[in-house]
Amino acid sequence: MDLREIARRARVSTATVSRAINHVSTVNPQLAKRVWKVVDELGYFPNTQMEQSVRRMIERRVEGVAILTFGMEESLLGHLRFRKVPLVFVDVGPDAPGIVNIRINYLNGIRQAVQHLAALRHTRIAFVAGPPRLKSALARTEAFKTSMAEIGLLPEVIVTGDHTMEGGMRALVELLGARDQPTAVVCSNDMTAIGVMREAYDHGITIPTDLSIVGFDDIRLAQFMTPPLTTVQMSQKELAQIAFRALLEEVGRESRSTQKSEYELITSLILRRSTAMARVLNHAHREQ
After folding, report:
1. Are strands 268-270 and 230-233 parallel, antiparallel or unpaired?
2. What is the mean pLDDT of residues 52-63?
3. Average pLDDT score over residue span 245-251
4. Domains and CATH numbers, the chain
């Protein structure tokens, strides 16, 4: 099943189908209604690799599905709400009966990171945020702001990245152009932090002597960086264990739950060697 078949049955163009399922506001409401009627009848999911995988699992009548992703199309969420199988989400679960959501406690790990930097006498701490379209990225940014406020510091330097190494490289260039350059940077994910480290090398900035860096995720590559990256760990193993346990509990219920269930995964700081004591004059050579 593809967009052309939906367009044929709804008597609209494929472009209209595409705009409708992506919730483009300019689509005629009546045409969008026709598209969604066909979509519901056919059980169609938007054609991406992840979404097609979910569709195949549900079509095989599996007893439950765990969707371990931090971003998802609203159209797919809307469809999954009405499926008669237990569904486990990470942070993006809709507020509906029978839905299990694993809530990531971003604040715990990011608070530890900020307090660790403060203990090293850093007061100019910057944050490289992730894409605003991701709820998880927004949650990490809010956790940073809260953590800074808790120790009496203003989260004044926040730049937006895109969770890629290239985005981290661009972010450091932007930070170096700031009037009051940071002595430490907390990043929304490890790939961003690795990009910051790479750009720092090109600018002759030594990590952590000149600039302390903290990542988020604790991907495998983090421990092999030079220096090894201090980061906030979000255990993938623990996440999978929670999802599996939640699915087993939901599948084992005699009747489907009428309420949304929630579990929590707590993040924590992993200390390595990309942070050090702040130096008062550690940026003087770049200000000359």
Report:
1. antiparallel
2. 66
3. 82
4. 1-44 (1.10.260.40), 105-234+269-287 (3.40.50.2300)
Within a 13 Å sphere around the CA of 96, how many CA atoms are in the beta-carbon half? 17
Amino acid letter for position 90: V
Q: How far is CA 215 from CA 36, 92, 155, 179, 212, in A?
A: 41, 22, 17, 24, 10
Average pLDDT value for the chain: 84
Question: Is-contact 193 172, C-beta < 8 A?
Answer: no
Torsion from C-alpha of 7, 12, 17, 23, nearest 10 degrees: -150
Q: pLDDT tens-digit profile of 101-146? A: 899 999 999 999 999 999 999 999 999 999 988 888 999 999 999 9
Give the whole-angstrom CA distance, residue 210 versus residue 223.
20
Q: Which residues contact 41 (CB under 8 A, 6 or more apart)?
A: 9
The predicted structure's pLDDT at residue 62: 67
Integer Cα distance of 244 and 262 in angstroms: 13
pLDDT at 52: 63
The token pair at 59 is 């079509």
Give the pLDDT band of residue 247 (cuts 50, 70, 90).
confident
Separation of alpha carbons 158 and 165, rounded Å: 17
Which tokens belong to 183?
Answer: 């002595």
